[in-house]
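Why show two proteins at once? Because comparison is the fastest way to build intuition. When a single record is shown, students tend to memorize it. When two are placed side by side, the eye starts asking what differs. So, the first record is below.
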Amino acid sequence: MLDFEFYSPEEEIALPFYGEYGVRVFVKRDDLIHPYISGNKWRKLKYPLQQAKEEEKSLLVTFGGAWSNHLLATACAGAKFGFRTYGFVRGEAIDNPVLTLCQLFGMELHFVDRESYRDKKGLFETYFASSEESYFIEEGGYGPLAAQGCSEITNELRRTYDHCFCACGTGTTLAGLAHGIANQQRATTLHGVPILKGGNFIRDEIAKLGVLNAVDICLHLDYHFGGYAKTKPELIEFIKTFTSQTSILIEPTYTGKLFYAVHDLIAQRQIAPGSTVLVVHSGGLTGLLGMLDKF
């Protein structure tokens, strides 16, 4: 078994804003798990890496964009747990701090055009079909084993919350939380904040991961700020204010949109006075490196 021990406390945010609306807000600090195998990436990789080890695989093959937190997490996890790593990178060959870190952790990078990138299974078969040592990991870590890891968030909670929020890219973390809440019969309303346009597709993705009651999950589709890795001045100002008031660092792609949504929903009184809210901080703070010019 691989050693996946970590530290992720629940921390209450004591902002006057929350007090004005009679709401208590807590953060599950998965951003503290590891600086590079960050937040939900640690949880998503836990069981795939254990399976790879059991199957005596030695090479992790995965996929991501040029600023991918998942690529970086996989590269670092490979170095930590004794795997070689190989990353297919979407788009033209470039240098940036995240990809440099991937290479420092030993990952071999292979840039592919966007059309070829769409067929990830095909790429894996083309380059690794004859390799018995290779283990396929989907982009973003998406998959049932990853959702199983994310479901364990609920095992760690010290209290039952009225509401639980998380950001959504592939839907894996949301699916895991849904499984955990259902299995423990917690009286918690689950909310997802998709960070892409047209985020209602998340319902289909989590259904593929076995969440049969996806209609009971509240998806808030209006906080994408233009789409993946897109932003607007009001989001940047919110991030700067929130971080300066709480010491909790958030970024524009995922967690900034998440906390903005929570604040906005509280201001709209969609969260009732007296409620307790848990916000899952999914990490991914290296995403700031590609957006520093926005600040």
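Second record. Ask yourself what differs from the first in the token line.
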Amino acid sequence: MNMKFKQIELSDIELDKVLNEFYKSFNTGYDFEQFLKIYLESVGLDELEVTQKSGDGGLDLKAVKKGIDELTDLDSIKYFVQAKRYAPNHSVSIESVRALRGILPDGYKGIFITTGKFSKKAYEFARKSESRPLILIDGKQLINNCIESGIGFRNKPVFHREDLLKLITTEKTIKIESLNLQNNSSDSIDTYIKKQITNNDIRARILRIPKSILDKIPTSDNSYNIKFDNFPVTKLKIDKSRTYFSGITEKFRQLGILDEYGNKIQKNSYWKLDTNSKIIEIIIEKDEK
């Protein structure tokens, strides 16, 4: 569990040193990707879906920040995130930021995250459009956000590489026993959409559907085949607003999300739609032993 603490200001020299250690902690772009999932969840984003990776440690992903009305998602915010693992002295050009705005899907806000920095012109360009807003997070801001959230830092704050690597390793080694996924498999956890089943979902006895999966289900379908872990395929109804599956109470009990006393046990779930078999596979994160 991340421990939040009162932030202590770092001097510019200390911040530069920490940022350099932080950058070197990611041996590969894949490690940086795993960290970003943890980071984005810590700032309240959900439904994290990797859409593209590149060899230079960059990736694109989609995410959602839920609003007050979780059932209809009328006030949720959709984000398209681009990230680059650059050396701290590497400046992201205005051309790269302009390219992000150019590929920004309709209805999305953009976030550009880097372990490097942005040029002055890049910041000026990002502030220009209110209709297609861009948020730029450079390496130093990323460090300060991590300190505030207690990601990889301890109370001084002091950067601890082993704390950061432990988070990344935990994310990389999630076991999906029901699908027999192995580390060397052509399939992996990255092909699944990670979504939290919240206390509100459990209380309402619903299973909210990730947007990117819902977009692939024909509007004429009012139910769909679901495969939970080692359980047989079951058909669940899609509600009229087309935001969640209903009739889930007994399945919540079987999956350990709702116990015999009615206690709610919030868990992460991993979703994947096979359009050929027309089955959605959902894996529930196992409890730590």
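One difference worth noting in the second protein: Residues 29-42 form the longest helix (14 residues).
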